[in-house]
User: What shape does this take?
Amino acid sequence: MRKSFLGAGVALITPFKANLSIDFEGLGKIVDNQINNGMDYLIILGTTAETAALNTDEKKQIIDFVCQHVNGRVPIVVGIGSNNTQNVIDNLLSMNLSKVDAILSVVPYYSKPTQEGIYQHYKAIIEVSPLPVILYNVPGRTAVSMSAETTLRLANYSEKVIATKEASGNFNEITKILRDKPEHFSLISGDDSLLLPIIAIGGQGVISVAANAIPKAIADLTHLALEGDFKKAAQLHLRLQTICDALFIDGNPAGAKAALHSAGIIENVLRLPLVPVTETTYRILADEMKAISNS
Assistant: This one.
């Protein structure tokens, strides 16, 4: 049965122990914290999960663990993307996705394909995917942006393409997609800071990084906006701006991990080439976490 991805989703971090192994106990705490605080669905193995630093066995272990731990409480999306189209197809066919509800697949990075190349890449994935596909446009990481025309071409190609996570920050392109999209297709904000304005013009919600640290606040903001209470949503949006900015001062997911460490939930460990935030950034995040928890 097709699941709805209306509302607030979180791109989960992958917590590590001091020896750099995966902290599954910490991951379970994070998952429960997200669900208990109103998040509507979870995304695993995205950019925020340091997926590039995980091996194949670890990715499979994370999928199995999260699916078992969630136990049907909320939908689960798995990130499966690459600049190697055949690699994406091989992963789709070899991973156990029986308890997963959709895949999130990023625009091919580094190779800088043309729009036709992007279209053909996704078309090949769509043909073999056993699950609905959410496109992911994040030119700040991929070095190429999927145009509104290519996004709409894919949305109209197959109803299996159910949404796009838009992190381009290009409101002109976002507006074109929302204006011309087919009924079955949704646009999801990929930027916490743009959550409110994107919902205001017809977006369906957010896939959030900040929610790792402040799930209730992000869930509340998303739900207020979707319910049309823009006065309260705007007040909350403005109150969260400082922590949302601070989470990205030293990169993602370093900020989210620092915030969670300050709350005593995980160890502040990343795998190279990523490193923890500076002491100054850590203090800002710790202070903001205390302020939000006390508000």
